[in-house]
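Sanity check. The docking grid for nicotinamide-adenine-dinucleotide depends on where the pocket ends up, so I'm generating a full predicted complex first rather than guessing from homology. Inputs follow.
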Amino acid sequence: MAASSSTNSKAQQFISGSWSQGAGAEAFSSNPAKPDEIVAKFHHSSEADISAALDAAKKAQSDWENLGIIGRGLILRSVADVMQGRRDSLAALMTREQGKTLAEALGEVDGSIETIRYHAASSRNSFGATFPSSFPGEHIEVVREALGVVAVITPWNFPTQIPAWKIAPALLWGNTVVWKPASDVPALSSAFVEAFQDGGLPAGVLNMVLAPGRTAQALVDSQMISGISFTGSVPVGNTIARSASDRGVKIQLELGGHNPAIVMPDVDPDFVATQLVVGAMSGSGQKCTATRRIITVGKIHAPFLAALAEKVDKLVVGDGSDPSTTTGPVVSASAKSEIESAIADAVAQGGRIVARSKVPEGPGHFVAPTVIEGNMELRTCKEEVFGPVTTVMNVDSLDEALLIANATEFGLTASFFSSSDADIARATKELVAGLIKINAPNTGSELHVPFGGLKASTFPGPREQNAQSVADFFTITKSVYRRIAPRGKQND
Ligand code: NAD
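Predicted complex below; grid placement will be based on this.
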């Protein structure tokens, strides 16, 4: 669609402390609620721009590492302060460019600032280790050093939170970064980087390129990087894993999910529906952690379905900047048509729609939050449909529910609703997911707790978010054995 009006937000690449237009094709981002409104016009970075960003990061790395971890932490703290002062404008821009509601955007910006503060403060923690030695007088210590230049590649669905989780610890540990955000959010990504610049980060320490995936492959394939932290889809994650493993580059991959929630008969159906409307529909269902399949056990099915349908019917879909909106648009026209085609296929396969909220008239990328009653054969149960859609199934026993819950290539999050300690203990043990929620929605995590999936949802390795596990990812370690040498007489 040709977009007409422009609000001219800045969107440029950032290399070696300078803003510039990339040498690639011209592009624009637009408001998902009003697709005619251009948010930013920009030029993609070319492979030569990516190469310049890598050179800048390489050049800046040793001075940055030599500043020391406390010095780096102080700069990160000042970045968080700058971001705090821009909280409202960042959130408003997030709503305009990505579509989520203003309340969701404010929550994300606050979480991003808090993430940067948390990593800044962790500069004063002890992350090394000392060991006893068999030799009296010998000291053994494990020291950490930066990986070097790190590539950070992120999706559009949490456009500041995911970058904060990766960039803040990468920088804290003395790495320099080339960041490639998703092309849907160039203006917000530029505003995010501007806070790092204005917070006093030296030139070259954080660089940003704006590039489509096919060009960004040059970043992944570069011989100059020592680590890649990526969040996105399984196919792209697999491509990155193949390229990196050839060169021994360290990788952290947080990928897709098809997250189940099991509802046992001994809980209040209305309570569960309140939790799972959040799990399935918040962020317009565009969360890797979202509740995609709900498996009810026994007779709770009918009252739960009725309660869920009632709550979904009350959702207000609309422009995220309107305070009455509970569910913003999805990110793009192609995302909307992909979600709607998956719903249509599920219905053609025998799924029954039990709830579908109203959507406003007009050209926005609005998708009605939809609940389907069905089974594991539906497309919505086989593919990660990245929108406000969930499928509810009914089984007779916990055994069956656990089998169905785990019958997917993914293993990101799982929820379990029950008042029985024994059932909770069994589900915790048998659900194959990196994040398990008991009597709570699949979505949401604490910014300081290790986060990541199992099976195809991840690449095994140190988790994200937690200070200790990110230290394990973003550093190399050396075990140093140190003895005292007797002084040689010839040197006196
Ligand atoms: P995506 O994989 O299409 O893109 C993610 C990023 O990778 C984008 O910046 C994209 O431009 C870039 N990219 C694409 N091809 C590339 C290549 N060959 N080389 C380098 N970069 C490349 O994913 P998306 O559609 O932006 O995001 C949605 C997906 O992300 C879903 O599958 C969702 O589950 C997943 N996700 C996972 C988590 C998690 O923590 N596990 C969190 C959020 C989103």
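Relevant for the grid: The domain at 5-255+459-479 is CATH 3.40.605.10 (Aldehyde Dehydrogenase; Chain A, domain 1).
Also worth noting: The two ends are 82 Å apart (CA to CA).
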